[in-house]
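Risk mitigation, structural track. In case the binding assays with magnesium ion fail to produce interpretable data, a predicted complex structure has been prepared as a fallback.
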Amino acid sequence: MRIYKVGGAVRDRLLGKPVTDIDWVVVGATTEEMLAKGFRPVGVDFPVFLHPKSGEEYALARTERKSGRGYGGFTFHASPEVTLEEDLIRRDLTINAMAEDDQQNLTDPYHGQRDLEARLLRHVSPAFAEDPLRVLRVARFAARYATLGFTVAPETLELMRQLSESNELEALTPERSWKEISRALMEDQPQVFVEVLRACGALKVLMPEVDALFGVPQPPAHHPEIDTGAHTLSVLQQAAIHKQPLTVRWACLLHDLGKGLTPEQEWPRHIAHEFKGLKLIKAVNERFKVPRDCQELALLVGEYHTHGHRAHELKPSTLLELLQSFDVFRRPQRFEEFIAACEMDARGRKGLEEKSYPQADYLRGAATAARNVAVQPLLEQGFKGPELGEAIKRERLKALKTYKEKA
Ligand code: ATP
Ligand code: MG
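Fallback model:
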């Protein structure tokens, strides 16, 4: 049997990037031989094994053929006769279809190295169109390597367009889609992920609510970039520049969905878009079975981001309601993430990226002021049950009043 490093490990070494996980392909072996060497079988769909010591993945070389819709719609063929070249041709991109032996001899039948140099994400063969997940993968790689100057090859974008126009994307499971979306959002340039999906027509299928934001104008006085789609991309970009976590990035992507619902005659104003957008945010959340913390923050940011921007104008009672909506007394971290998302929203405006956002500290200060209300003295005064709750609220309101006056 012959063993080769494949995929991301080869690509990233050639790019001079750190290699985190290594995938291996084994040519000329049977399942029985692998088991005899102590490898542990893990693949349910394919013959994939874990190395007894390193735990890295070793896959038997295989060919694949499409036999139905979606991810399950594949039949594979693994046998000792399958060659390295046959295994590599089923892979998505040429830069992912290189192999390397233990002497670092490169096998590169589909010219991955040439495309690395040309900074091109190019499909290996027409069989690319057999797995719709590749549309998301390519967009994700575009987001990751945009900083290095990579773009999607026009002929690959064309295949992605065909895939998006067929109904293949709808066959993706929520879990597989979310895995790609969440990884893409954590890349260096997550806005490129959205741009590439939009360019091939996949955004319209996967997240029509986001796609609808392009071409929707906002008031130039507040939004010099005008276009709501362009604004959303900038907010996402700011979130990446400021190293925000996934929850914040997801909230950034969805915060303005309501603007896509504004009747044209009301443009460029978007009255109550915060509230109108909630049902759309909920729909996207459910479509991809998004983790609860991301779902919750997206809904809260959608509803309250304008409150964040107007923090200094809010009455003490409204401030208190805001803090209560976030359950800030038990979950201070989530309120921090809300503040971060509001700040990214403000910075995601053309020419205003570096403008300070004093609302952030003001909101933090308000949360602290309300939190500092001591309960013990109220207990000592004999307050109990619902009356205690009311008394705490009163004291917090007082504290916020004082805070606002001093600020
Ligand atoms: P990462 O750095 O994100 O791990 P990677 O290229 O190693 O990138 P993996 O998902 O680990 O990506 O997959 C390993 C390799 O398997 C890829 O480089 C590619 O050759 C192949 N591959 C994975 N998923 C697909 C797919 N859906 N279609 C075609 N080839 C795929
Ligand atoms: Mg990998």
